[in-house]
Amino acid sequence: MYFVTAQEMYDTDQYAIERIGVEGKLLMENAGRAVANHMELFVSDQKRIAILIGKGNNGGDGFVIARTLLQKGYDVEVIVCASPSEIKGDAAYHRDVFRNSGFPFISYEEIENLEHALKEKDVVVDAMLGIGVKGAIRPPYNQLISFVNQFEGEVISVDLPSGVPADEGLEVDQAVQADRTIVIQFPKVSAFLEHTAAYYGRWEVVDIGLPSTVIQSKKTQKRVWKKQDVSTTLPTRGAFSHKGKHGKGLVIGGAVAMPGSIAMTSRAALRAGAGLLTVATVQENITALASTVVEATYTTLPSEGGYISDIGSVDFSYDAIAMGMGMGRHTGAETILQVALEQTQGILLIDADGLYALKGILSSLKGRHNPTILTPHPGEMATLLNVSIPELLHQPFAYSKAFAEEFQAYIVLKGAFTIITTPQGNQWVTVTGNPGMAKGGSGDVLAGILLAMVMQSQSLERALCNGTWIHGYTADLLVQHQHSTYDLLASDVIEGLAQTYRALSQ
Questions:
Q1: Are residues 394 and 487 in the same domain?
Q2: Per-residue pLDDT band at 148 (split at 50, 70, 90)
Q3: Same domain, 167 and 262
């Protein structure tokens, strides 16, 4: 499923109108009917509905929604929040169709006490402002949004909540807090941003027949990776496959004080499907690790002060190497990482303390001939970019894309919405996971899952999307059936991978 910027949505509409020949008023009719038909699934015809209609295309959709619901026998009051001269084009056409159909509407100015009028309703449909919102919300919408947010019934927004920009990098001045948003054709970028996503409430997409041709033709695209994508792309295992076919991986890390990080990464990699795994760490860790990850083999690395001091003896011919978990932030880490960047013959995944060491040698990424994967959380990504965390979270797609293209690396930006970006600038977002994962070790587990995934017979971008989706989905299954968001541990997710794989195979 694609998701789009405001401009990409405008371009798609124009393509349908100019190239395909679908009139704008027909697109509006399709949109309004699709929203109204979807509302039937969860709004009883016994509910009293108020529809607040703005001046633009969102308002035009509102007239179609109102007409469709009235024709179905719903109790609907239409409140127009704009002057007659402000409603133009296709929206004016559908206003006239609504009126000529014998249905009345009133202006918000005609209501003596709008707040009181809304309290008499069970549902408010917000069709006031659309994807063009930028900057301060002007009257009367600022007051109307305030009234809607005080409404005690259900608030349903059309396409996106009024006041929420479609794009990243924009501030929210004032916006409707929707209980549910019915998105038209494609989700907008703001549905996946931490500072705007909550306004949407629960959201679903309705298809109105717009082509995705315009989006597909662009140099880069943005898509949501869903369960169906995992089910259709996750490699199956043949009856005669053997361990060598499922990847030979290496994990490098683990200072004396932090053996748990590589233990979780290693165990997760094996649970996720790695065929063979070796752990390279300091001598002091191996006894404890060998009793925890019994299926792995081990390589002893020299240490100084409890940290790895040299990796020159490592065999770098593995299919994929994950490095940095529990490695520690010490003066020798940068030199060690530089060796790995230069010597690794396959895929190199850098996580945790490895990302801290990478900061001073970023240019080394450009010289690699094999894929490099970085798996930062927002704090680590902000450090690599020399920006603040709020700046990063305000436009994570743009920052990730620019970094991936410049340094030719795959970026997995972890968070409530995990963003996967390729060196070509294509982006995916996964939305699985829950607050129970906000604990130490979750990133180590993801690194292990991704290590296993990239060694399977699938493209690298699919491997990263599948791995991040599986990581979050496993946590979701565990919280639904066995754990809470309080007690869930990263190690629980490792053991829960079996449930996810069974669910996917059914």
A1: yes
A2: very high
A3: no
